[in-house]
């Protein structure tokens, strides 16, 4: 009986255990996810923004959604703004979530607080004060970033870093990669710290053996484009930051797309009397000098101008190359001035338009002649060509508008960069008109800018009105994509309109 009871007990125990509820496994935590994502399926860059945490990190995904570049945390806070290139996707992450990724391309960067930034152009390093970039926009903020270079010329590139983590970085260094036919010097650069006090004035920053949390540093490179490189082509630069921390070697990467442009930015103007033609040479890499380019200003086609080319100008800061002009125009044709700027063996040519005209009336073939200045026939406009000129004879309105488009290459410049005024002269037969107002597309103004509101004399025959436009942009910013428009009180006949880079009332003989 004992044997049977023991066996019965052994049989019953498992049955009792089976009546207990099995333990529930803890649910797996959700995988790290971005705060928000944007995809740009269009052909133009997409500007996006969001309210985000101060530690937010922006990641751009390129082809096949592969991580391509990262925008460092701490650069932006509150309102996050980012440019998503065509065909790309951008993600906003919290730094904690990005660091929690097990296989993410930028998880190491988030954990270590290591976000290298590639700056194409000069970076000023001031001992004890930190880093100051030139006026270049970091290339990842307007992808692809644009830079000015020429084949055979050196292009400064800086990779700036800041230890935003909790650990010391030992022996930090950066390697920069460019297209195979470009030259990068040095191939690998040590980190210099601008926070280290220089031993004497003018001394170079010493390489550091480590960057403590909160310290920043910079690695400086020179990139050289080969002869025959094509301006306007887009190429990648990749920076690899490597250091040792918590007993391991850490490598983080960032990329940037860059498009080469001609090395010297140029603007064009003339003196008010038309006696001098000015080429403003703008060095976006100042204080790094670009050398002394040769500037050739040639005689415009169809004119009797006698132009003397200026002597070569050393371009360290901005410089003006001034050409003397004898017998400046007027005329009935569009005038473009051929300009060739040669830096070493690289030639940059452009033909800015400095004079455009439109004439109307029976004495001109086909009843009108427009050279670089085109009348925009808007729906419902009262103006039409008549024997007397472009007239509003059929209008019953007290206010009539005549709109124009200026030649695409007309020489304009943002006055924040270079002041290059424009004059518009209007010849008309008054009719019953009493006033004329000119509105134009100006730099820095979303609304039409008024150049003047001038009384029209009640007289027989032609009279001429002159308007000064100090900041004309002429990018079609007015209704109907007009560059400027004349608004008349009354219905005059306009016989001639000219746009010039000199004041016709003060033109030298």
Describe this structure in words.
The protein is mostly beta strands and 509 residues long. The chain is 6% helix and 44% strand. It is built from three helices and 38 strands. Strands 24, 27, 28, 30, 31, 33, 36 and 38 form an eight-stranded antiparallel beta sheet that branches. The longest helix is centred in the first third of the chain and has 17 residues.
Give the radius of gyration. 33 Å
The largest pleated sheet is described as: 8 strands, antiparallel
Helix content: under 10%
By secondary-structure content and strand pairing, the structural class works out as mainly beta
Percent in strands: 35-45%
Distance between the termini: 139 Å
Could you name the key traits of this structure?
509 residues, mainly beta, 8-stranded antiparallel beta sheet, 44% strand
Task: Put the structure in a nutshell.
By secondary structure, the protein is mostly beta strands.
């Amino acid at each position: 009986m004992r044997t049977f009871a023991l066996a019965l007990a052994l049989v019953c125990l498992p049955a009792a255990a089976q009546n207990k509820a099995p333990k529930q496994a803890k649910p797996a935590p959700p995988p790290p996810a971005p705060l928000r994502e944007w995809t740009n399926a269009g052909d133009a860059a997409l500007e996006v923004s969001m309210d985000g945490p101060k530690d937010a990190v922006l990641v751009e995904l390129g082809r096949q959604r592969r991580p391509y570049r990262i925008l460092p945390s701490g650069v932006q806070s509150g309102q996050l703004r980012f440019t998503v290139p065509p065909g790309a996707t951008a993600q906003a992450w919290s730094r904690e979530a990005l660091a929690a990724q097990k296989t993410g391309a930028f998880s190491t960067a988030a954990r270590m607080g290591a976000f290298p930034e590639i700056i194409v152009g000069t970076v000023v390093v001031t001992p004890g004060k930190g880093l100051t970039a030139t006026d270049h926009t970091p290339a990842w903020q307007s992808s692809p970033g644009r830079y000015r270079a020429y084949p055979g010329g050196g292009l400064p590139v800086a990779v700036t870093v800041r230890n935003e983590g909790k650990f010391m970085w030992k022996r930090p260094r950066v390697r920069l990669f460019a297209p195979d036919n470009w030259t990068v010097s040095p191939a690998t650069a040590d980190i210099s710290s601008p926070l280290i006090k220089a031993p004497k004035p003018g001394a170079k920053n010493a390489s550091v053996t480590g960057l403590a949390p909160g310290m920043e540093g910079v690695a400086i490179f020179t990139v050289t484009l080969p002869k025959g490189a094509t301006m306007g082509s887009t190429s990648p630069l990749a920076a690899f930051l490597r250091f040792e921390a918590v007993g391991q070697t850490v490598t983080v990467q960032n990329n940037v797309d860059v498009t080469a442009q001609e090395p010297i930015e140029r603007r064009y103007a003339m003196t008010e009397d038309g006696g001098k033609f000015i080429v403003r040479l703008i060095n976006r890499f100042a204080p790094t000098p670009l050398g002394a380019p040769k500037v050739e200003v040639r005689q415009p086609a169809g004119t009797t101008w006698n132009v003397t080319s200026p002597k070569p100008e050393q371009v360290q800061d901005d410089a003006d190359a001034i050409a003397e002009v004898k017998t400046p125009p007027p005329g009935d044709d569009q005038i473009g001035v051929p300009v060739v700027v040669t830096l070493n063996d690289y030639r940059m040519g452009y033909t800015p338009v400095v004079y455009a005209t439109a004439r109307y009336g029976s004495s001109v073939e086909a009843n009108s002649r427009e050279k670089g200045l085109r009348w925009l026939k808007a729906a419902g406009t009262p103006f039409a060509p008549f024997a007397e000129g472009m007239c509003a004879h059929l209008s019953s309105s007290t206010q009539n508008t005549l709109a124009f488009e200026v030649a695409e290459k007309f020489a304009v410049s943002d006055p924040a960069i270079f002041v290059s005024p424009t004059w518009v002269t209007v010849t008309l037969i008054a009719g019953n008109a009493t006033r004329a107002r000119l509105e134009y597309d100006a730099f820095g103004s979303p609304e039409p800018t008024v150049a003047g509101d001038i009384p029209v004399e009640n007289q027989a025959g032609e009279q001429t009105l002159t308007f000064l436009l100090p900041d004309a942009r002429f990018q079609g910013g007015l209704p109907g994509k007009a560059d400027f428009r004349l608004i008349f009180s009354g219905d005059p006949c306009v016989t001639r309109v000219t746009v010039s880079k000199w004041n016709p009332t003060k033109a030298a003989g």
